[in-house]
Amino acid sequence: MKKHCLDREEIFLLTQGMAGEREAAGMMAHVESCADCRKVFESYRRLDDVLAQWNPPAEPSPWFDARVRTAAASRPQARGSSGFLGLALNRWLALPVLASLLVVVGLIALRRTPRVTPPAHAVQSTAAVHVPAPPAQAVKAPAAPQTGAQEVNMYKNLSVLEDYDMLAGFDVISELPKGSSKVAD
Amino acid sequence: MAIDSDLELMLRVSRGDADSFGVLLNRHRGPLLSYFVRMVRDRALAEDLAQEAFLRVYQARERYQPEARFTTWLYRIATNLALNAIRDRKSDPVLPETAMAEPDGDGSASLLERAADGRPTAEEQMAESDRQRLIREAIETLPEKQRAAVILHKYQDVDYRQIASILKVSESAVKSLLFRAYESLRVRLEPLLEGGLV
Questions:
Q1: What pLDDT band is residue A22 in, cutting at 50, 70 and 90?
Q2: Which domains, from first to last, does chain B contain?
Q3: Do B59 and A72 touch (CB under 8 A)?
Q4: Dihedral of CA B81/B82/B87/B88: which sign?
Q5: For residues B198 and B131, is the Cβ–Cβ distance under 8 A?
Q6: Mean pLDDT across the stretch A51-74?
Q7: Interface contact flag, A54 B139, Cβ < 8 Å
């Protein structure tokens, strides 16, 4: 038996059969021996009795079944738990379709992102380097050198080449061995 | 003849057995309608919602997974429908809640006829009507989830573990919902508890 009085919630749970199985017997023994707790217990029982008196009429109409059957026959069977963008997709298809859509949206966003133009001095210095798809108005480049060796000789000591990472994408520089920031003679 | 369980019947329905759906309909339409009447009060709306709930069960028959009790699934569908209907009604200025009150009696006999027949007198009927109205109004003032929890627990005889699954909350949350609901009801129904109208 519990020595201390129970709180209201414990007593409520006891009246509703929702107290833990192990605790319920001890709690009930306490309620029977404690006038205060018994009073609360009985008030919840009375409330239950009052609530039980609410019985609104709820007889189904005679055409209830017929209406359900007619509606069932006229509506197509639901496919998937819910549609996606109005499409009745199978739940297993929804994820791959969503992933593909995200990839497409990402690619479109990448294509629309403006390219970073190098600083003016770098542009001037590297004007002759072959840059993939430069903006039409970016720099008017002189005629391209005939060979890779000529290109290397042109730029081997320029300070801009210190920034290997920036120029790694350029055709000529990317041919250099990894880790080398200077062009060898 | 053995009575088929809801689960067995629903599995048969999922394999295309329409007769089994009829058995489920017959077995659950009364309790389900009574749930909707208590949730939304309006009798005609309650019947529409009950039909919609059965229809959704039928439409989803091939996706039915016997992981939980059939009634848990049925009442989850029903509760979603009821809560949506309550929200729609709140946002619809054309249909105030007071316009949808259920009739307090069945209207089949006049008050005088009842009195002469040994049935409840007019006074008794009025007291009964007041009692019903007080209880209904007290429950209607509860927040949505408390209202659903009380109705499922008290009137539909649904186990609190099932209620947790229906309302998608934890079991301890259901206990707390019910306790807070009963505390509110205790205050609102004080006149009945004190014996004023009982």
A1: confident
A2: 1-102 (1.10.1740.10), 120-193 (1.10.10.10)
A3: yes
A4: positive
A5: yes
A6: 90
A7: yes
